[in-house]
Design a protein that fits this description.
Blueprint: E1 4-10, E2 19-25, E3 33-43, H1 45-52, E4 65-72, E5 83-87, E6 102-106, E7 110-112, H2 120-124, H3 127-140, E8 148-152, H4 157-168, E9 172-177, H5 183-188, E10 193-196, H6 201-207, E11 213-218, H7 225-230, E12 232-240, H8 255-258, E13 264-267, H9 285-293, E14 303-306, H10 310-319, E15 326-329
Parallel strand pairs: 8-9, 8-11, 9-10, 11-12, 12-13, 14-15
Antiparallel strand pairs: 1-2, 3-4, 3-6, 3-15, 4-5, 5-7
């Protein structure tokens, strides 16, 4: 008889209450995979959309990331008991994800964490957020010291990570937020300035005689895409990597009329992490962990829930007001 495990399962589409606790078969790793015993996992906005039936691809056992220990590795590439993170590689989308007690992860999407004093909960707040932010800034935007960077949605988890990484790299960052009371906090993280996130931000800054930015990271999404392009200088780069403002498409989009000439526009989706084009080996994850461990950056989760309290975690996720990373621990 096959072994079983506990898992949180999307039983139907809807609110947090559709997440149910079930006993399911324990996965068996194939060659090229590792079986991870999940100790904690981060909760992501994509999982909310999957739960609601709004995502293009989903698995009943969702969860894009996790941290834990290696339970099995058929090829011997990782020692048993090794501390690791698993991120993307189809997790929660084309294969069961981190909401299970155990999960199989392609080795290309496993990061070994040999040295750290961080707790499981602290580690769980890092993989998807920092791997995504690093890829956005340095692989796609090619951010350089001294460049002026606009981060729209800077108080989101990816926004905070991007702000830490960009300031550390010597960029001059303008950070947006919906709340003026967060301005001082963003400046304390190293933002050169904080501005109110609003529609027609390009017009507001133009009235002030402001120069356009070298690079723009748009985490708000389609709702502000066109103005984010206008906020970026000729020869500059704008990257869209979040949809905090909703999934509705740009209405009546006409590139010939609405796009600026000479501005480079790209899209990044974290599902590509671990592919040949975006290998995890190119991300200095251990250095990131060390900076957080040494107190250079504050990346603690703002909410930590026990495994049996997933409904509370998703209720905060639904509020869009968490203010940081939500983590669930075993």
């Amino acid at each position: 008889m096959a072994e079983t495990m506990n898992a949180i399962v999307i039983s139907s589409f809807g609110g947090p209450e559709v997440l149910t606790y079930q006993t399911v078969p324990k996965p068996v790793p194939a060659p090229g995979e590792a079986l991870i015993r999940v100790r904690a996992f981060g909760v992501n906005h994509a999982e909310m959309h999957m739960r609601k039936g709004e995502w293009d691809e989903w698995n009943p056992i969702t969860g894009l990331e996790c941290v834990g220990t290696v339970e099995a590795c058929p090829g011997g590439e990782l020692p048993l008991g090794a501390k690791v993170a698993g991120v993307m590689g189809g997790l929660g989308r084309s294969r069961p994800g981190g909401y299970g007690e155990f999960v199989t992860v392609p080795l290309t999407n496993v990061i070994r964490i040999p040295e750290t004093r961080l707790s499981w909960e602290q580690l769980a707040a890092l993989p998807e957020v920092y791997c995504t932010a690093w890829s956005c800034l340095f692989t796609v935007l090619d951010l350089q010291p001294g460049e002026r960077l606009l981060i729209r949605g800077a108080t989101s988890t990816i926004g905070q990570a991007a702000l830490n990484l960009a300031v550390d790299a010597g960029a001059i960052v303008t950070a947006t937020t919906r709340r003026e009371e967060r301005f001082e906090w963003l400046r304390s993280l190293g933002a050169a300035e904080a501005v109110l996130e609003q529609s027609d931000l390009d017009q507001q800054l133009q009235k002030q005689g402001r120069l356009r930015f070298d690079k723009t990271l748009n985490l708000v999404g389609n709702r502000v895409l066109l103005e984010s392009i206008r906020l970026t200088r000729t020869g500059g780069r704008i990257l869209q990597a979040g949809w905090l403002g909703g999934l509705a498409p740009v209405k009546d989009f006409n590139p010939m009329v609405q796009m600026e000439s000479g501005v480079h526009f790209s899209l990044f989706h974290s599902k590509v992490l671990g592919t040949l084009e975006f290998p995890l080996s190119g991300i200095p994850f251990q250095n990131i962990v060390r900076k957080i461990e040494n107190g250079a950056w504050d990346a603690k989760p703002v909410n930590v829930f026990e495994y049996r309290d997933i409904h509370s975690a998703h209720r905060i996720l639904d509020s869009h007001d968490a203010g940081g990373k939500i983590v669930v621990k075993h």
